[in-house]
Amino acid sequence: MIRLMRSQAAVCVLLGALLVTGCNTSIGMQPPAGDGGQEAEPGQGGKATAGETAAGESPAHSPGESAVGEWRTQEVPYDYGAMKDDVVIRLDEEPRLESPIRTAVGVGAQTYTLFFREAMDRSSVEKALKEQADDETSLYWYVEPQLEFRWFHDRQLQVRATPPGKAKSEEGVMEYRLNVKGARTLSGKVLAEPPEFLAVVLPPSQIWRVSLDGKQREQLTRFSVENWGDIFLDPDQRYVLLKRFTEYCECDARHPRLYAIYDTEQESITHYPVELMTTYRGEGRFYADRRGFFFSEPEEGVTVPDREKAVRVEVNGFVHGADFSRDRSKLIMAVGAEEQKENYDLVIHDLESGEQKRIAGGVKGYVITSDLDNVVLPVSFQDNGQQVTIRMRKGADSMEELNHRYDWKTGALTPWTAPVPSDAWSGYIESDDGLYQMYWNGGIYKGSTRVTDLSGHGVWLPGSHTYVYPEYRGNGQGGSVIDIVAFDADQNKSEILITDLPVGLSLMGGSKDGKWLYLRSHNLKQQ
């Protein structure tokens, strides 16, 4: 039973990874044939063909930009001379995603831009795209999208792919491919093994606001594509960190992600060209954005949006973990040599003055590694405003914890042992006033006294002693549904608030007035 809840958390992470990560796979098909074509010079523009939407029928966008599923009115500037492959297929909605790739895309029409190293026989390209897409329909989850073409010239083509309205698979997943295998250049060369773009169509989950009785439901977002983001970054519950996996597969591979910040007040998404972290690990020069995230010093020439909102931090050494204090005025850090695995310095950094307090060897113990793949995890710090809990391990190969607490008033570091059984994890979340703690696999405690052995990944309602969590149950038809349950820690009593919600939802938090819950779900419906 060692690390039971941590294992459950790992399963949750794995399930999320299964949904949206990826291993790049490619399935060989017979090359088609084609003919025709007329050369045009790059920069001339072009007309829509084969199912054609005239250029003037959609709104104009800057080069490289287009609304999801809409035609562009200008070609995209591109360095064709630097191309190493015969073709690059790029998703217009997110230009950082390009072939060869298997990745998730949104429901409905998507546009792609194809860049060719040589001038192409246009009709052979269109025929190859159609035949390659049709070949994949022998696999039950593959679909053949409707393809429309708009040439800017013989080396740049925009394709609009519209999948069918309904998936063939019971799971609701659709996939299609864009591949120009068999297309010909104007010089007569046949493209034998060009890189392809495999698009997995996934309905995006949305953020909802639901009243405690479930009678009022309001969809707060209209995300066009699936991404991972089910926690608020800040106490005001305004900002959400969104993570989009670049690759898709049914595996737990750690593929790169794309990062963005969603502002619930402005209803806007800001995309970042760098990795965003809620607990920082990396070089000693980095940025701390008090909205609740960090990023490393960007490379020269990389423009990071809203950088003026972040504080530049510099510390002597490699940062093995950094978190904000509860009031976001300070950083708590574990610092040492990059290869160091134990006994780091504890550094307190004031974000206003830049002053640092350093306690040599203050972070005692060995760094924690992932139970999934042994990747070194950042040292994390949990601040309740009075004390900071620091979790490490007793040995390099040990699962036994070595925990300490740092006291803000006295500056003392003292050992701390959680009140949970020795085979349980000491991780917890607590009520706003710190009176009650919910240990992930140890139950709810009032200090060192157990109140209940309840287990469930939920949230404390702000300003209350009520813990709210989802509970699975059978629906009598071979499937499952979720009920939302509230546990009153003062009364030691549970109450079912909402019944029969669809599985797969995430409970993000509760409103400050205690009247609403924030959920993230793929298929929640309006009442």
TrEMBL record:
Source superkingdom: Bacteria
Signal sequence residues: 1-22
PROSITE patterns to which the protein is assigned, alphabetical: PROKAR_LIPOPROTEIN
Keyword Signal assigned: yes
Keyword terms, alphabetized: Signal
Residue ranges of the region described as Disordered: 30-72
Record protein name field: Lipoprotein
